[in-house]
Amino acid sequence: MKHIFHNGTDESKPTLLLLHGTGGTETDLLPVAGMIDESADILGVRGNISENGMPRFFKRLAEGVFDEEDLITQTKNLEEFLETAANDYGFDRSNMVAIGYSNGANIAGSLLFHFANTLKGAVLLHPMVPRRGIELPDLSGIPVFIGAGTNDPICKPEETTELAEMLQNAGASVELHWENNGHQLTRNEIEKAAQWYAHTVK
Ligand code: MLT
């Protein structure tokens, strides 16, 4: 997968996996990562799917309607890519925290839904429920920050709450932060994610 890797200055820190929103690139979330942990390794990945030229991490049938088969395939592909990247760059695969926005938050959520021990933690910014009707792996002890907008027309508040409950029922420790805003990222929610990270991710 097309990606960037930057070595951090503190080897004890996790590798931050950056997953962009629809139409984004592997560098979009660099400023966000810098606000959350400027001394961590960074792996920014570009989604392999092109929707009219806009990179995404999996196909969709319509706005908000996922191609579930492709979601499963692309989630496996990303998981395999992370193994390869860890070998190539020599970072600790077991110490990875995802930061995903929108479509990137959805594939990060899908990693958590399909693979045990794939992420040590996750910052999901404006995520949706990736899949329903499956049993989640044991996510005990995995901290997840969800940033959401009370007026988000794409990631509706009910769906955000549903996702938080699904993750919690699988054992994850979820912090849900609401902004009185829509789908866009706000500085305040990143600051809240940074505070959560400082207290939660070790
Ligand atoms: C998705 O397709 O993953 C969601 O609708 C969010 C987005 O618009 O990318």
UniProtKB/TrEMBL annotation:
InterPro entries found in the cross-reference section: AB_hydrolase_fold, Dienelactn_hydro, LYPA1-2/EST-like
Signal peptide range: none
Pfam families according to UniProt: DLH
One GO MF term: hydrolase activity
Residue span, Dienelactone hydrolase domain: 76-190
Keywords, comma-separated and alphabetical: Hydrolase
Keyword Hydrolase among record annotations: yes
Keyword Ion transport: no
Matching PANTHER family: LYSOPHOSPHOLIPASE-LIKE PROTEIN 1, LYSOPHOSPHOLIPASE-RELATED
Protein name, per record: Alpha/beta hydrolase
Species whose genome carries this gene: Halobacillus shinanisalinarum
